[in-house]
Amino acid sequence: MERPNFKKLYYLLGNVSQISATGGDGINELNLIKFLNKYFDVYYNNQRIDFTQANLGQNKTDIEAPGKDYDAYYVRNNPIIFKQIPEEKLKIYFASPYDEESFASSDLIACPTESWKTLLEKPNKNWGILYPDDYYTDKAVVLSQKLDPDSIYQKEVEENAFTRYGIDPDSFKICHFGSIRNSCFPSYFLRFYDALSEETKKQISVIFVGTTSASLNILDDIDNFFFIQNIDFTKVNDFINSSDLLLYNQRDFQSEYAGSNKVVEAIVCEKPILACRSHAREYELGRDYPLFYNLRYKPPDNPKNIFQDSWIDDDEVIRCAQLINKLVTSSSFYDEVIDYMRKIDKARFYNTFNEDRYIDEVISRIP
Fold it and tell me: What is the mean pLDDT of the chain?
């Protein structure tokens, strides 16, 4: 049902005819739609999104050309549809992947983080294949990643979610969530692990959720490494809250600007996360966050990058291993990190957040 005085927003993700909480992009986009729904009547692929209906009220199986009756249009990674938007309407295109014609004809470029917007505002030689050399724009606006407070939140678990997989619930559980690609291969953590004390290794379980040992190029017979290939999205919150330390592994220039649900989920669940220091992560975690590790260099974005693990000093590997040793063996230090996490403002990461200057900018630009 349309609401009086609400602007109408057309929304589309790539070639996905119906949006759902499937995969990282689907989850992120659906959370953003829930946030935008407070300000607009959102139509996904010409279908009014209704969170009270089965399948959100969607029934179209094909991508349709956008109608002319919308006030604003938001499209991610579909240049063909974007070209069909009426010229006089407000057009918003997502910041990646780059499409020259879509970027040129758009009124706004939507970035998921403040760091991405900042970097887009001046020439930058580190974009790699993401943008042409020295590309910059004054069209950038932030439509940031949002979490659903009913799905991801801090809780005390009654039974540790990992127990059913034969993992000792009393062990210190170090967890990575999601698939593993070259750009986020956990090579630095594997080096940290090798430098841990033998006593620490006896007390930890290292768990990779959403991948297999083949993805890590390591043997199956490491006693305290566990692999859980798939879990239902509705159970993710239980697994995060059953963890003791989370891992964020982005090791190229993407870490400077890209959003990360791993980091945001850690913040709202008040779980320590080991992450490389970058502008985007400092914006989320603060400059004084105690579990950053430092890289000497982050190569430009390119899926063909070959990583030789030469961009972290041996001294930094030892320092980080000592941090993990201390987290495992010192409850007072672990509690200090938790206290730090508790002080981070969490409201801004939820789709219930009511103050957003960029939404006001979008609305003000509607003809």
Answer: 91
> Angle 17-15-257 (CA atoms, 0-180°, nearest 5)?
120
> With 0-12 CB in 10 A as exposed, 13-18 as middle and 19+ as buried, what is 209?
buried
Locate 61 and state its tokens. Answer: 């199986």
Can you tell me the distance from the alpha carbon of 225 to that of 206, in angstroms, rounded to the nearest whole number?
5
Nearest to 250 by CA among 176, 356, 163: 176
Please tell me the distance from the alpha carbon of residue 133 to that of residue 118, in angstroms, as a whole number: 17
Q: Under a CB-based contact definition with an 8 Å cutoff, are residues 291 and 333 in contact?
A: no
- What domains can you pick out in the chain, each with its CATH number? 7-146+351-365 (3.40.50), 163-349 (3.40.50.2000)
For the entire predicted model, the pTM comes to 0.90
Rounded percentage of the chain residues whose pLDDT exceeds 70: 96
Under 8 Å CB-to-CB from 353, ≥6 apart: which residues? Answer: 35, 146, 347
Over residues 255-289, the pLDDT tens digits come to 999 988 899 999 999 999 999 999 999 999 999 99
CB 33 within 8 A of CB 56: no
CB 116 within 8 A of CB 131: no
What span, in angstroms and rounded, lies between the C-alpha atoms of 79 and 102?
Answer: 6
- Please tell me the distance from the alpha carbon of residue 213 to that of residue 199, in angstroms, as a whole number: 24
